[in-house]
């Protein structure tokens, strides 16, 4: 589902970190505001003037200078590790370019990176990166310290934690759209895998949007002042604080014709450390949510393995197996088809659940499912005879949305057990309800709602091969998230949506 609507009535909290000293009344009140914002949004706008106007200007100038370099030069910094080095020229996201400088607090590392781009050196570039990192780190440390203090974590733990992270500094560029009226998705909805991200942008207003806690609205994260930074909680902070703060689900929109440059500091755990919530964060009310895990393995799993979180990465990986040289039209068609059809799926499931009075379960339910796209071909028999292609069955999933070519064959059983032919039509989809939705509706209605429904909520169907022509169908299958609580799946779930619960927990 890609809902591009933004809800203008909601705004992110704005918290003022200027002139703050630990131990003062103001510190305490800002600390509780920061914790509340992280609990409610996983995100807020922070005002901080220790990053000077000159440093901001220098960093955006450095950024423009870097992205103006020839492609071959920028590609010298390409890295195997995601978000390190240069990223760009991605056919599914051609309007985006970015670079990530690892350990940007370390002048040697920054100089090494600079020399890859400018072998003769570029002092103004490396100084801008180092100063930006140094000054923004101060805000990053302050916020992490405050949020951890607010949960009663001890000074020694906080100090150790702050020492256990490093800085990834990223510069990002999104080209504007051609038409001022247009609004396009620049980066799909996601949560960050780091501890905290602190981001500022050039004088372009729009860009990042953050999902509200109830998952219903997108809130614009527009900076209100020159000293504004957007502070975004990542999945590592979520895990360290045992789920007590949110990892904000956010996306980037492209609006207006101006190019949007942004610069951000991402605090990352040292790769050799295990990530887990300290005992202080665990009690009877808040049992441990996540097993200790290795950050490097988690990062690899979510950026390379089967846990790759973004649809385009998954589709690209699948396409590569069939066409190692790439097949852009296949991959973009599959992606846009799935995205558009998932909008229909969401609408249908929302309507069905609303009609049974289950409104308060809708969002959790929608977050607990995933999609499988299947392309199927039934070979037609050589003669005119009709053969059974697929026995009568119900689908095990939640919903199936099927599109078929002009060849007949699909039949569906009615309430009174008659079989009806489903006529193919150019502009319609067949929607079939699977066993999982049947069980889910029955359960919620009967036990949680104290109402008993005699539902016929699943579709019995079969397929015949009726002519000499092959029958093609493309199916979007919606299924519950896998409930096996092994580490990797939990981590994928953190990334996809920090608050999503599994299907069985939901139906418990
Ligand atoms: Fe992000």
UniProtKB/TrEMBL annotation:
InterPro entries found in the cross-reference section: DIOX_N, IPNS-like_FE2OG_OXY, IPNS-like_sf, Iron_ascorbate_oxido_reductase, Oxoglu/Fe-dep_dioxygenase_dom
Q: Which GO terms describe its molecular function?
A: metal ion binding
Spell out where the chain crosses the membrane.
none
The alphabetized UniProt keywords are: Iron, Metal-binding
Q: Does the keyword Transmembrane helix apply?
A: no
Domain Fe2OG dioxygenase residue range list: 163-269, 368-468
Q: Which domain of life is it from?
A: Eukaryota
From the Swiss-Prot or TrEMBL record, give the protein name: Fe2OG dioxygenase domain-containing protein
What species is this protein from? Arabis alpina (Alpine rock-cress)
């Amino acid at each position: 589902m890609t809902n591009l609507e933004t809800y203008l009535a909601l705004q992110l909290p704005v918290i003022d970190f200027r002139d703050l000293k630990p131990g003062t009344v103001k510190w305490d009140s800002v600390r509780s505001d920061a914790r509340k914002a992280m609990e409610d949004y996983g995100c807020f706008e922070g005002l901080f003037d220790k990053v000077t106007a000159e440093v901001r200007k220098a960093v955006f100038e450095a950024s423009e200078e870097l992205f103006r370099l020839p492609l071959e030069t920028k590609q010298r910094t390409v890295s195997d590790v995601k978000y390190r080095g240069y990223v760009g020229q991605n056919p599914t996201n051609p309007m985006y370019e970015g670079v990530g400088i690892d350990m940007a607090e370390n002048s040697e590392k920054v100089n090494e990176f600079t020399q890859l781009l400018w072998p003769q050196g570029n002092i103004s570039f490396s100084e801008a990166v180092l100063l930006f990192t140094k000054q923004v780190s101060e805000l990053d440390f302050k916020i992490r310290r405050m949020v951890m203090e607010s949960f009663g974590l001890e000074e020694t733990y906080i100090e150790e934690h702050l020492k256990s992270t490093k800085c990834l500094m990223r510069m990002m560029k999104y080209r504007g759209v051609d038409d001022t009226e247009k609004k396009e998705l620049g980066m799909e909805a996601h949560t960050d895998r780091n501890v905290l991200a602190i981001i500022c942008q050039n004088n372009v207003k729009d860009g990042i949007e953050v999902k509200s806690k109830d998952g219903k609205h997108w809130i614009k994260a527009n900076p209100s002042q020159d000293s504004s930074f957007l502070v975004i909680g990542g999945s590592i902070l979520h895990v360290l604080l045992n789920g007590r703060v949110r990892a904000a689900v956010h996306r980037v929109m492209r609006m207006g014709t101006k190019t949007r440059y942004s610069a951000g500091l991402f605090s990352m755990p040292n790769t050799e450390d295990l990530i887990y919530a300290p005992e202080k964060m665990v009690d009877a009310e808040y049992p441990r949510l996540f097993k200790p895990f290795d950050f490097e393995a988690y990062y690899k799993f979510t950026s390379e393995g089967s846990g790759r979180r973004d649809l385009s990465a998954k589709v690209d990986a699948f396409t590569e197996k069939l066409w190692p040289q790439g097949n852009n039209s296949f991959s973009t068609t599959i992606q846009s088809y799935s995205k558009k059809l998932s909008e229909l799926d969401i609408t249908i499931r929302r309507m069905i659940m609303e009609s049974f009075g289950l409104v308060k379960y809708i969002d959790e339910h929608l977050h607990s499912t995933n999609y499988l796209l299947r392309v199927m071909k039934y070979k037609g028999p050589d003669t005119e005879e009709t053969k059974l292609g697929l026995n009568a069955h119900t689908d095990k999933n939640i919903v199936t949305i099927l599109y078929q070519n002009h060849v007949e064959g699909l039949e569906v059983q009615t309430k009174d057990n008659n079989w009806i032919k489903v006529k193919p039509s150019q502009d319609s989809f067949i929607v079939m309800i699977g066993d999982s939705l049947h069980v889910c509706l029955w359960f919620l209605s009967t036990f949680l709602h104290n109402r008993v429904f005699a539902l016929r909520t699943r579709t019995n169907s079969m397929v015949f091969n009726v002519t000499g022509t092959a029958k093609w169908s493309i199916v979007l299958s919606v299924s519950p998230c896998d409930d096996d609580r092994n580490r990797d799946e939990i981590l994928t779930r953190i990334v996809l949506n920090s608050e999503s619960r599994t299907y069985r927990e939901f139906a418990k």
